[in-house]
Design goal:
Structural class: alpha/beta
CATH architecture of the largest domain: 3-Layer(aba) Sandwich
CATH superfamily of the largest domain: Glycogen Phosphorylase B
Oligomer: single chain
Number of strands: 12
Largest sheet: 6 strands, parallel
Shape: globular
Strand content: 5-15%
Radius of gyration: 23 Å
CATH class of the largest domain: Alpha Beta
Order of helices and strands: EHEHHEEHHEHEEHEEHEHEEHHH
Strand order of the largest sheet: 9-8-7-10-11-12
Helix content: 25-40%
C-alpha cells in the first residue's frame, strides 16, 4: 500500500530537510506541506485575487456561529484539490473535524473511501471558548463528520456518542503503540513519580490542582520528575521535583520511574500518558478523567480518585506495598497488550478498511 501524507506548514516544524527525512523513512511516498493562505505581496492584488474569493468561499461553507474553528481555507482547499487532480486515491483519511470540509461537495474525491479520524469530541474541547454555543457546535460537528464514509473514534465513550447519530459509519479505532524494547540490565529507579504533560488548558488546571492540593500531603522524600512544556508552569522551589522541559527518549525516563501520574480534571479522549505508562508496566495514579477512553475502568493498572486525600493515599499505597505494585504493573501491561498494542490495533484497522491478511 502506498501512502501520501498531507499537512499544513505551521502545523509542524517542516523544512526541506525534515520533509526529505520523512520521505526517506518509507512511511509515505510523498509529503505535501500546504500553506494556509498565499503569500501576501501587493495588498490590492491580494484582495482581488484571494481575499475576496476566500470571503465568498466562507459564505459557501456557511460557518456556524458559536462552533469550534473550521480550518478549511480557500487556499488549502485549492491545494488539496490540485493533489486530487494529479492522483486518485482508494482511501482519504482526514485527522480532526477542523479539516473535514476538504471533502465537502468535492467531486475530485471520486470513488475513494473517505474516513475522518476524530481524535476528540471537539465540541467538548472548545466548550470554554468565548462565544461558544454547545448546541450549535455539536450540530456542526455531526454535520462535518456525516460527510464521510467512516468515522473513527478513539474511545468507547465517543464511539457510543457518535454512533447514536451516525450509526454504522462509526468505528472504534483506539490509539496504537509499540511495546517498549525490553532492557536486559537493571535500570536504577531515579524517580518515584513521573508526570508527562504539555501546557494545554486541561493540563494547566490539572498540574495546578496537583501541586496545590495533593503535593502538600506527600512526603518530600518522594522523588518526582515532571517532563514537557508543563514544567514552565511548575515552581522551581519544590525540593524533590525535577523539571525537564524536553527529552529525546521518553522511554528512558519511564524506565527510570516507578509510578506514573495523570491528575486530569477535564478533557476528553484517551490520555496518551496513561497508555505509555501501561506499556512500561508502571502503575498509574490518576483522577477519574484519567480513565477516559479506556474500554474497561477496572483491572487496568490504574488507581483513580478525585479528592486530594485519596489521590495522595493511593500514591503512598503503591509506593509502599510491593504486592499491590506488582499487581497493578501486571494488570497494566496485560491491558495494554489487549487493547493498544500494534497487533490489536491492526486487527481493528484491517476490519474497518476491509483488508484481509
Amino acid at each position: 500500500m502506498k501512502v501520501d501524507f498531507i499537512t499544513k506548514s505551521v502545523w509542524g516544524q517542516y523544512t526541506p530537510e525534515t520533509v526529505k527525512a520523512f520521505e526517506d523513512s518509507g512511511l509515505a511516498e510523498h509529503i505535501w506541506v500546504l500553506d494556509r493562505k498565499p503569500v501576501k505581496g501587493n495588498p490590492v492584488k491580494y484582495f482581488f485575487t484571494y481575499k475576496l474569493w476566500h470571503i465568498l468561499y466562507e459564505r459557501k461553507l456557511k460557518l456556524v456561529p458559536g462552533s469550534f474553528p473550521n480550518h478549511t481555507t480557500l487556499n488549502l482547499r485549492r491545494q488539496f484539490d490540485a493533489i486530487l487532480r494529479r492522483q486518485q486515491y482508494d482511501y482519504i483519511i482526514i485527522s480532526y473535524a477542523y479539516w473535514a470540509d476538504f471533502i465537502r461537495d468535492n467531486p475530485l474525491v471520486g470513488n475513494a473511501v473517505t474516513i475522518i479520524d476524530t481524535h476528540d469530541l471537539l465540541a467538548s474541547q472548545h466548550q470554554n471558548d468565548t462565544g461558544f454555543d454547545k448546541g450549535a457546535a455539536l450540530g456542526d460537528e455531526l454535520r462535518r463528520l456525516a460527510q464521510f464514509n467512516q468515522v473513527w473514534a478513539i474511545s468507547p465513550e465517543e464511539t457510543y456518542f457518535f454512533s447514536q447519530f451516525l450509526k454504522e459509519k462509526v468505528k472504534y479505532i483506539p490509539m496504537i503503540m509499540t511495546v517498549p524494547t525490553p532492557v536486559k540490565e537493571t535500570v536504577e529507579k531515579d524517580f518515584d513519580l513521573i508526570y508527562v504533560a504539555s501546557d494545554n488548558p486541561h493540563n494547566l488546571r490539572s498540574a495546578a490542582w496537583f501541586f496545590k492540593e495533593v503535593y502538600p500531603l506527600l512526603s518530600t522524600n518522594i522523588r518526582i520528575c515532571a517532563i514537557g512544556v508543563i514544567t514552565a508552569h511548575i515552581s522551581k522551589d519544590y525540593p524533590n521535583v525535577t523539571l525537564i522541559p524536553f527529552v529525546d527518549d521518553l522511554d528512558e525516563y519511564y524506565r527510570r520511574a516507578r509510578v506514573a501520574l495523570c491528575p486530569m480534571l477535564t478533557g476528553t479522549g484517551v490520555k496518551v500518558k496513561v497508555v505509555e505508562a501501561m506499556s512500561h508496566g508502571l502503575p498509574v495514579i490518576c483522577s477519574e478523567r484519567g480513565l477516559d477512553g479506556l474500554p474497561d475502568k477496572t483491572s487496568n493498572g490504574c488507581l483513580s480518585a478525585n479528592d486530594p486525600q485519596t489521590f495522595a493515599a493511593n500514591i503512598q499505597r503503591v509506593l509502599s506495598d510491593k504486592a499491590l505494585y506488582e499487581q497493578l504493573s501486571c494488570q497494566g501491561q496485560a491491558y495494554f497488550q489487549q487493547h493498544f498494542s500494534i497487533e490489536s490495533g491492526y486487527q481493528k484497522l484491517d476490519k474497518a478498511m476491509g483488508i484481509d491478511r
